[in-house]
Structure formats: C-alpha cells, structure tokens
Hints:
The complex is a heterodimer. By secondary structure, chain A is mainly alpha-helical. Chain A has a single domain (28-220), classed as Cytochrome c oxidase, subunit III, four-helix bundle (Four Helix Bundle (Hemerythrin (Met), subunit A)), CATH 1.20.120. Helices cover 78% and strands 0% of the residues of chain A. Chain A is built from seven helices and no strands. In chain A, helix 2 packs across helix 3 and helix 2 (26-61) runs antiparallel to helix 6. Chain B is mainly alpha-helical. Chain B contains four helices and no strands. The longest helix of chain B is centred in the C-terminal third of the chain and has 25 residues, at 65-89. Chains A and B meet through helix 2, helix 4 and helix 7 of A and helix 1, helix 2 and helix 3 of B.
Amino acid sequence: MANTSAAEQAAKERALAHLKHYFVSSDQQFDAAKMGMWLFLVTEVLLFSGMFVAYAVYRVWYPEVFAVASTELNPWLGGLNTVVLLGSSLTVALAIHAAQTDKRRALVVNLFVTVLLAAAFMVVKYFEYTHKFHLGIFPGEYFAYEEMGQRIVPIFFSIYYVMTGIHGVHVLVGMGVLTWLALRAMRGHFHSGYYTPVELAGLYWHLVDIIWIFLFPLLYLI
Amino acid sequence: MKGHHITSRTTLLKVFVALVALTALTALTAQIDIGVFNIPLALAIAGSKALLVVLFFMALKYDKPVNALFFALGVLFVVVFLTFTLFDTAFRGDLGNVGKETIHSTEEGAEE
C-alpha cells in the first residue's frame, strides 16, 4: 500500500517536473511561454516587413523591370517549395496533436518528417541559387548577367537574395530546433501535460511558412 | 493539459488541402493578366492562406484573445509601415507635374 502511493507520488512529480516554482500551475506556465512566443513572432513579422516594404517601394517604381526579372525565377520550383513547406506545417500541427494525445511515436515521426521536408525545401533552394550563380546572377555589385542589362534588374535580385536568404536561415534554424525536439521526444520528454517546446517551435515553423506564402507569388509569379 | 484545444486531424488535413488548392489558384490566376488587379488578387489569396495557417495550424482561433491582439497589432504596424512609406515613394514623381509657369506666376503675384 505504501509502495503504490510512493510510486504514484513519483509519477506525479515526474508529470510536474517541468513546472518552475514561480508559476502557480502548468497551465499558467504554458500560457506565459506562449504569449512570449507570440511577441517574438511579432518581432519576426516586423523584421520581414522591412524587406517587404523595400520590395513594394521598388516594385511600384519599376513594375516592368520586376516583371522581366522575375521570369528568371522558376515558378515550378517555387510552387514545389510552397507545397513542401505547407506539408511541413501540416506535419508540425500533427506532431502537436500527437503530443496532446500522448502518442509519442507519432510525435517523433511527425517531427522528423517535418525536418526532412525542410531539408527538401533547402535542397530545392540550393539548386535555384546555384543555377543563378552559374548564369552570373549574383547579389548587389557582383551582378554579371549579360542578358538582363537594365540598371534596376540587380536590385530585384538583391531583394530576392536577401528575402529568400533570411527566410532560408529561418528554415535552417527551424530544422535545428525541430531535430533537437524530436530527439527529446524520443526520450519521452513530452506528454499531454507538458509539450510547450513543441507548441512554440510549431508556432515559429508556421510563421516561416506564412512568410514563404507571401514570397512565392510576390517573387515568382509577377 | 486540461482545457487545451485539440484540433482534430481531419480539420488539419482539410486546411492543408485548402492551402494547396489556393496555391494552385494563385499560380493559375498569375497566368491571366487583369491589369491593376493582379497584385491585389495575389495578395488576397496569400492573405487567405496566411489566415488559414494562423487560425487553424497556429490555433489562434481557439487561443487566448491576448495572443490574437498581439498578432493583430503587429500586422497593423506592418500596414502602417507599408502604406505610409508608399504615400511618400509612390508619389514622388508627381511633383514633376507641377508646371513651372504656375509657380512662377504665383510668385510674381505675391510680389505685386
């Protein structure tokens, strides 16, 4: 009798091992962390908004140049990457569903599939970048693509490289975080009572997806 | 945890299908030239996709309202940033439309 209650006590302590002493409850800790994450996401939105404004200013000034320069981008590859990222958003949402319903295996699998899809996105990006480098389409003053000689064309590609580049850095960071979480999930760190890191990484990943949702039509489909 | 909204897998799948369909739609509509409406249409489709992701994948629909407030404020300031910058940059060339004579005659009128 004493043994079972001791075991129950240990199980209870394990379930609350994540709870910091300065929070009243697990729910309060979760809500506080999530609010902090949303604030961080707002700063991320504002970071990207600077680039979107630069894009808008130059597109309004030189619409014809943007239309011509964007034909150099392959909309099929951009579309493929859009679907890949949307799929990775789905798997991250499914991972959170698995965590909420205590399905450890589904959680681990969905997190790893998300990382694989992110890697696929980066591979496509790698081929797009190297193809442009091959043509001499480099950012800024290193632009050396003879066939597009207009003065403003390099600015379009500078904007393209900065926007997709910083977005790509976010994808790489997300891959690192999601891999770390998948490894922790394998060791059973997350369950329906505590999955805050998975939830927060999921929010971050969806935001990276949203940025791409806007980049795809604005850069590839002019 | 108790009280956390769990979005069903069917809902998540439906949202994903809708997102892929909207991606196809934006690729298709980009092939048609509808003049000044090209950009608003592309942005409307992208905005709908972003809204689907925010409401269902990020579960803001079921979340504490304070998080929605933060996000809405962020979006509001992006809109302010974008429109007020364009108020300047998009209309700079228009100053050239002011006829020199007009200014000249006004100045002369002021001197008299």
